[in-house]
Amino acid sequence: MTNMPNEIREEYEFLEQEVGWLHVKWQFYLQLFGTDEKRVELLNDVAPIFFRVCQDVMLDDLIISFSRLTDDPKTGDRSTRRESFSLLRLVNSVDPAHYPDLRPKVQNCWKQVINVCQPIRTQAARRVRHNDWATLKSTTDLLPGINRSMIEDALKYISELMNAILEYFDKITHSYELVRPAGIDGEVLIYHLEKLQKYYERYGDVDSEVTY
Question: What is the C-alpha to C-alpha distance for residues 87 and 15, in angstroms, rounded to an integer?
């Protein structure tokens, strides 16, 4: 049972699930493509084009997820503005008149989130969500790069924002760092691919007809 008031809890509980899944997606991405070169070489040996597509799709999904979380509380054109669940909506649900100690904390967390996510949002707007023509044809107006440190900083600041609210009302915090979900994560896939690679090294590749 939480002590969080209803006007905050609805936004919080929805976003808690979104933030949790974002951490899961990032963990899976790192397990496949961000652990070491040997693992990347394994994926390239087994199915290079397939795993290149997987890498691109997973990264773009992460970009879109960060972009959605950092959207304005209302999105769309002026004539079609719709309510949007986002971290800023959660921040705005913390009434400074009722929670004068909490509101500055979540506002400061939000500033850190939006600052580190700005390059990610630019990628989403000009490459992932839309093929921005000016960007595509320009040789000087390059998109900002996105690296591992940027994503991990974004996850850290988002977690701090969520936990500032949870701790204020319930005196606890939530760890988004995941214990390996046995049997369903990227490590299991890597394990079986390594076994397959060792089998081929020992017995040679076996040609088989693929039917659909």
Answer: 7
Domain limits of the chain?
Answer: 6-75+85-202
In single-letter form, the type of residue at position 105 comes to K
Tokens (6 digits) for 169: 């009302």
pLDDT band at 154 (very low <50, low <70, confident <90, very high): very high
At residue 33, what is the residue type?
F
Task: Give the burial class of 58: count Cβ atoms within 10 A of its Cβ; 0-12 exposed, 13-18 middle, 19 or more buried.
Answer: middle
Amino acid at 185: D
Pairwise CA distance, residues 121 & 63, whole Å? 7
Q: How far apart are CA 5 and CA 129, in angstroms?
A: 35
* Residue 165 contacts residue 14 (beta carbons within 8 Å): no
**Whole-prediction pTM:** 0.86
**Contact residues for 14 (Cβ-Cβ < 8 A; gap 6+):** 85
- pLDDT, tens digit (0-9, with 9 covering 90-100), for 163-210: 999 999 999 999 887 655 555 688 889 999 999 888 888 887 655 544
Positive or negative, the Cα torsion across 11, 14, 20, 25?
negative
User: How far is it, in rounded angstroms, from Cα 129 to Cα 89?
Assistant: 22
